[in-house]
Design goal:
Blueprint (H helix, E strand, L loop, with lengths): L4 E11 L5 E13 H15 L5 H8 L18 H16 L13 H30 L1
Antiparallel strand pairs: 1-2
Length: 139
Amino acid sequence: MKQDEFVVPIPVIDEDEHGRRRIQPEADLKLLTEDDFFDELVSVAEVEDLNIPIFEVFMKYFGQAKPDFNPICLTSLIDPEYDAVIALEDKAEHYHILPYGGGWHDQTAMLVEAFDCIRSAKIQYDRVYTEKVQAKVRK
């Protein structure tokens, strides 16, 4: 096993007689690179439900300890450059200071797009977390 490969239990996806894909409760252990893992994650997300955020699919299938498997830490898979952009967005949000001089329209298009994606993911995560907390309170 190479250093950039790891063993992951990948859910088994099959089709019923009507051609509908579904996820079985069992999983197959596979040796994957990070890129292969992300491809498998997207495949599982496509079958699971288009309304479930990808981080929820990640936590459901890969973020929990199972027999013979330690959960995968999502932050360990993040490229250091992406991690720096996420940290930059967080600082810009909390301290109201943009990385480049001037206002929002003076920032690079790539940075604005990255900040929009990060903010969207944060909002989605907060929504899911709030819904879970509210469901626990109602019990």
